[in-house]
Amino acid sequence: MHIMPLQLTDYIKQNIAAGYSEETIRASLLGQNIEQSLIDEAYAKLRGHSASTTPTPIQPAFVPANTQANTPLQPNINAQPAHDGPFDRRIDRIGFFLGFVYWFGSFTVLIILFMIGMASGVAQTVPALSTLINIFIFVIGAAVIIAMLPVMVSLYVRRLHDLGQPWIFILFHLIPVVGPLGLYCYLQFAPGTTGENRYGKPTKSYDFFVVLGFKRPNQHTTPIDGAAYRSPTL
Fold first, then answer.
1. pLDDT tens digit string along 164-218?
2. Which of 210, 224, 175, 174 is nearest to 74 (CA)?
3. How many domains, the chain?
4. Angle between helix 178-189 and 127-162 (nearest 10)
5. Is residue 11 part of a domain?
6. Coil, helix or strand for 207?
7. 38: number of CA atoms within 13 Å, CB side?
8. One domain, residues 104 and 202
9. Is residue 233 part of a domain?
10. Domain span at residue 20?
């Protein structure tokens, strides 16, 4: 069934009049799983270049919920960012590389501390105390390594999102040798999608905590509350 975005066109027109940018409106509609082709068609009609050759009037494809059909949706000041989790964001090639540098750097520091503990003069003077120190360093190191595993997974998932791919591609790691190497080369060298995609906006912050997924990058946006949009049950 071909759905003509008649009411979607009216909605976009009124929100443009309300002062919202095209990027903001598109992001809100994409966040509600509205097909890109429908959005492009609606904008084409607004510009006087209809993208449809066989118009078939049917029931409105998009009906605002709990509001009047012709009332522009107002910004929701309490709305949370749509892509806010460490596994929901995006990261570019530089951030992906820095993530490995940060991760292996932390791991190297722990190894050095462990080696210093083992080579310390305490081992010759107070063997029992040296053993306790080594056990403590080993436990802390193991805990940090285990805690950093989700960070590494987050790096892969966010890089896949930057390429417009789902997280399921990370399962290529299950293919011996070729899988991990091929996936890493793809993620490290393939350019990400231009502009915003279904996983959010590109991230250009290379802060330590942002790269490792512990901190949300600063993005000054005023999203339209897309929760008021829904497609009818067909």
1. 888 888 888 888 888 889 888 888 898 888 888 888 888 777 777 777 776 777 6
2. 224
3. 2
4. 60
5. yes
6. coil
7. 21
8. yes
9. no
10. 6-81+223-228
